[in-house]
Design goal:
The chain is an alpha/beta fold. The chain has 9 helices and 12 strands. It has 2 domains: 4-108 and 189-262, 3-Layer(aba) Sandwich (Rossmann fold), CATH 3.40.50; 122-186, Alpha-Beta Plaits. The protein is 35% helix and 21% strand.
Length: 266
């Protein structure tokens, strides 16, 4: 689909892509954070955006004809701490919380039964995994295994996901994998449903472009079908429903630079 030269120049390797971007009456650019705008870090609160990216995002935000937003598995509060407040819409916690431009936040409500199950899931994960690797979010519990050797990570993820999955269906929950862990979360609520909701309010004939690196971004790549382009950030060994690829966050930075030129926003 792409070659090394395409990735180095920030080109996603989609024939006619930049022509479509130039001629679109309106554009919606949606970006994942970890692995897309920032490199990974064992300490997830040290995964800062790569140098120069925030400036580029501000220029895209201020340009005419493009709506910019961020969609992340992180809680919105963490994203704001790492990226800063760009005054753009943010979807956090795998599609369960939304922050509008004016700062108001709306969230998915858990039932009492779901809340009780997530509290129990947190205890189960703490019993089965290494200390300090379990994170409680708004509507999920995540086990982080980044930094462990591959075998240890697989063992912990398998044990925790097995415990969570025994009755998850009864509570409307499911265990899903992400890069560096597993998460017990609301079933049927993901980045794909969040993206579909976002696009409902977009102007007619909006071209949507979504960039992401994780397994959780595949939901958005499938949801965008027929509305624009999904672009996978990562190597060719990772299967994807996206139509294009970029090698890494540095290629994403080059992509943003090209976006500004293509949309005459420089």
């Amino acid at each position: 689909m792409t070659d090394a030269k395409d990735n180095e120049s920030g080109h996603p390797g989609i024939h006619g892509f930049w022509d479509d971007v130039r001629t679109a009456p309106h554009r919606c650019l949606v970006l994942d954070y970890d692995g897309t705008l920032a490199g990974f870090h064992v300490d997830r609160m040290r995964a800062f955006p790569i140098p120069g990216v925030v400036d580029l995002l501000e220029r895209v935000r201020d340009s005419e004809g493009t709506s910019l937003s961020i969609m992340t598995g992180r809680p919105i509060s963490e994203l704001l701490e790492l990226l800063g407040d760009l005054g753009i819409p943010i979807c956090g916690s795998q599609g369960t919380e939304f922050r509008a431009v004016d700062g108001t936040i709306r969230t998915h409500e858990l039932s009492d039964k779901q809340e009780e199950r997530l509290r129990r899931a947190e205890r189960e994960a703490n019993d089965l995994a290494r200390e300090g690797r379990v994170e409680r979010k708004l509507a999920s519990v995540a086990l982080h295994t980044r930094g462990l050797d591959a075998d240890a990570a697989r063992r912990e993820e398998a044990a925790v996901c097995k415990a969570w999955s025994e009755d998850a269906f009864e509570y409307g929950l499911e265990c899903r994998s992400f890069k560096g862990g597993v998460e017990l979360r609301l079933a049927g609520v993901d980045k794909g449903t969040a993206l579909s909701w976002t696009l409902e309010g977009a102007p007619e004939n909006t071209l949507c472009v979504y960039l992401g690196d994780d397994l959780t971004d595949e939901d958005a790549f499938r949801a965008i079908d027929g509305r624009g382009y999904g672009i996978k950030v990562g190597g060719p060994e990772e299967p994807t429903a996206a139509r294009g690829r970029l090698a890494d966050p540095h290629a994403v930075k080059e992509f943003l630079e090209t976006w500004l030129r293509a949309t005459k926003a420089e």
